Amino acid sequence: MSESPYERGTTHFGFRDVAAKDKQKLVGEVFTSVAGKYDLMNDLMSLGIHRVWKRYFVGTCQVKRGDRVLDLAGGTGDIAALLKDRVGDTGQIVLGDINAGMLSVGRDRMTDRGVVQGLEYVQCNAEALPFPDASFDLVTIAFGLRNVTDKAAALRDMHRVLKVGGQARVLEFSEVTVDWFKPVYDFHSFKVLPKLGQLFAQDAGSYQYLAESIRQHPPQAELKGMMDEAGFARTSYKNLSAGIVAIHTGYKV
Asked: pLDDT digit string (tens) for 53-105?
């Protein structure tokens, strides 16, 4: 069996192979560029439907008042804001992101919303989380796993920091399951999206990368297998919008 690109010391950055050690820096440059336009980015990529996906994602999480939650790739705080209502005043949410620019935007937006109590902001790498074992009742990552260099390592560490009985949930762009829709989706991703990115954010390149990164992300069954290998039990996934996105779920037992 031949070595994987990652084992050879390279990985993908969109459709390009790059040194694995360089991907974090390259992804960081993308998100530093788009941090102030993050909501616009998601609107352009999903035609605004990402807001519905996120509400469904949080609304179906295993979480209750008083729980401690880690939201990875927390970005501008969309998931954390929705989770805050679920954990209540006695719960705690740690909003983690590897990118300082995204974390700063998230903190500012949460403060503007008046959401301050029970929130902690941590700049961290999902592949090596700075938390003790069994620290959280729920770990979430929304639209962030595909940008992680070593996804298997990130899944293993998500499992490590979960308490027994805890749940991990991944919301991510995935593989479209309806054949007639695939060419429409490809046209929007590769022809329309970069032009919209240039028009609205003066940054076509970052949006081109984001479209490419979706195609390089493991499809539903493969990601489920990766969660199994990371130690999660009762893994499953649910497609939304014909597989444009999928919600993956796993438990620590």
From this structure: 999 999 999 999 999 999 999 978 989 999 999 999 999 999 999 988 888 88
Amino acid occupying residue 16: R
Q: How many domains does the structure of the chain reveal?
A: 1
Cα distances (angstroms) measured from residue 71 to each of 54, 198, 203, 241:
13, 30, 27, 23
The CATH number assigned to the domain holding 244 equals 3.40.50.150
Measured CA distances, 114 to 37, 49, 118, 119, 133 (Å) = 21, 25, 12, 11, 31
Least Cα distance to 139 among 165, 115, 113, 159 occurs for 159
Q: Which of 218, 242, 200 has its CA nearest to residue 34? A: 200
pLDDT over threshold 80, residue 42? no
Position 44 in a domain: yes
The CA-based angle 68-241-237, given to 5 degrees, is 50
CA 4 from chain center: how many Å?
23
Note whether residue 24 is domain-resident: no
- β-sheet with 245-251: strand ranges across: 119-123, 92-97, 68-72, 136-142, 162-173, 245-251, 233-240
Token pair recorded at residue 6: 């990652």
Q: Domain residues for 101?
A: 35-177+208-251
Residues 25-33 have a mean pLDDT of 65
Instruction: Judge whether 47 lies within some domain.
Output: yes
Considering the domain boundaries, does residue 118 fall inside one? yes
DSSP code at position 122:
E
